[in-house]
Amino acid sequence: SSGINAEWPLRPGECIKEGGPSCPSKMVDIDELLENFTTYDFRIDVRSVGEWDEGHAEISSLAPGLANSPAGNYLHILEGKEDGKILVYCRSGGRAFQASQNLLRYGFSKVHSFYNGGFQTLAAKVKEVSERDTENHPHKNLCYI
């Protein structure tokens, strides 16, 4: 079949190891995500509506299907963000990577893809950090989860 991703046969591991012009600007791991979550100009959650309803980051926007549909279908969410630093995440990293490629194809240049987990990984890590360090106020980035 000639799906949208057939044009981009890259796998996330290739971009993590080597990078390249067809890769997201940055492949983001959990530690970097925790440290920099609020520094992104825009955060896009590409999970389904049902997954979003089970829990999401309050400062993110939902774009279900962006992994398999052209970014042009999401102009109502993306318009004016072409030059912004964008984080894309999902449940496990696969859809985020595909959506990142769609954004690159549409002209977005500062696309960061969360690759080693997704929202559940982030939420669990936030809970772990909060429970481990009850003396200190949680890091400001964690307050938005």
Shape designation = globular
Count of DSSP E strands? 5
Low-confidence stretches: 1-6
Please state the oligomeric state of the protein chains shown. single chain
Q: Looking across the biggest beta sheet, what order are the strands in?
A: 1-5-4-2-3
Describe this structure as you would to a colleague.
The chain is of the alpha/beta class. The protein is built from six helices and five strands. A five-stranded parallel β-sheet has the order 1-5-4-2-3. The model is unreliable at 1-6 (pLDDT under 50).
Summarize this entry quickly.
With 145 residues, this protein is α/β, with parallel strands linked by helices. It has helices at residues 12-17, 30-36, 49-53, 75-78, 94-105, 119-132, and strands at 26-28, 42-45, 61-62, 86-89, 111-114. Helix content is 33%, strand content 12%.
List keywords for this structure.
single chain, 145 residues, alpha/beta, 5-stranded parallel sheet, disordered N terminus
